[in-house]
Amino acid sequence: MSSGNGAPAPSGALFLSARTALAWADRFSYGAIVAVMALMALIVAVQVFFRYVLASSIDSADELARLFFVWAMFLAIPHGVRRGVHVGVEAFVALMPAGRRAALFRLNSALAAALMALIFATALPVITGKWEERMPTLEITAAVYYIAVLIAAGHACLHLLLLAWGGPRCWEGFGVQVARPLGGDEPSGDEPSGDRPA
Predict the structure, then answer these.
(1) pTM exceeds 0.85 for this model
(2) CB 90 within 8 A of CB 182
(3) How much helix, strand and coil, in percent to the nearest 5, is found in the chain?
């Protein structure tokens, strides 16, 4: 990101360790997203083959595809938080000086982290309450949908806490393309793509 978005991120050992640990969690999450999307595509393709070629059907295909879709969607949310690509209205914020934008960015990140923590805490009793319930066509707990919410809320909360701590430039120089936060300058484009923990 350009220097128009506030002070550089902290360079202390604790911050750098937290950022590196979160980057490794992101890599694992990326792998899980790829896996569930591949499984979703596979089950849909197999179901189409069964239905139109063999005149048969897999009872659980629709439910499995829906389950994989929900997991892929929720696992992807924290990656959008990290890159700042979720929808936001910045008409007023864009008029502020860079220092105020960065301060507001940190405050907004802290408030959003609190919301994610609340969602995480709310998901726990929902999971335990749904644990005995079974899915209609699969012999697994119906709580599996809410486990995805729990993981997404926890992962997004960690990203938001890091953004509140390090500011809008906290991923700078870490191989992450970040969207223009809170009316800041456009990314310079000289940052390498990909997620490489330091």
Answers:
(1) no
(2) yes
(3) 65, 0, 35
pLDDT digits (tens, 9 = 90+) for 86-116: 777 778 888 888 888 888 989 999 999 999 9
**Among candidate residues 142, 89, 146, 95, the one with its CA nearest the CA of residue 123:** 146
Q: How confident is the model at residue 10 (pLDDT cuts 50, 70, 90)?
A: confident
- Judge contact between 157 and 117, C-beta under 8 A: yes
CB 7 within 8 A of CB 102: yes
What is the pLDDT averaged over residues 157-185? Answer: 75
Question: Which two structure tokens, joined as six digits, stand for 167?
Answer: 């500011």
Residue 190 has pLDDT above 70, yes or no: no
Ramachandran assignment for 28, one of left (phi > 0), alpha (psi -120 to 50 degrees), beta (any other): alpha
Distance CA 16, CA 97 (A): 27
Look-up of token digits 């929900």: 70
Round to whole Å and give the CA distance between 84 and 181. Answer: 6
CB proximity list for 180: less than 8 A, separation 6 or greater: 84, 186, 187
